[in-house]
Here is the input.
Amino acid sequence: VQNCLEMVNVGNMLSPDLEKEALSFVINEFSAVSKTPEFFYVTKDQLITLISSDDLSASEETVYKSVMTWINHDKRRRKKLMRQLMELLRFPFMDRLFFLKNVQGNEAIRKCCQDLVTETLTYQA
Here is the structure.
């Protein structure tokens, strides 16, 4: 798990097959990979590829927490990406209490994504 993100980068430079295999591993082990220090250094495009995958093996709550951790690691630069990344999350599939506490209760999310919050609340009602 530790170096699979590094393998994605190496594969990108050396071999499309290696990159594909490493990416597949990350998608299958997202919960564990997102807790590694290397996760902080994935690019925006890599993160988008991961969180938009229909094969991602993680709960929506885990994906949300991972994205927020990634943003907060370099908040000054990444805060402007919040809207783009939040649009990729599947909020209606989150546990309602988790959503209310962690998403609706997050002021930054409410500021940039109020329509997503409202839409999810309507869907979950």
The chain has a mean pLDDT of 89. DSSP finds nine helices and no strands in the chain. The first helix runs from residue 4 to 14.
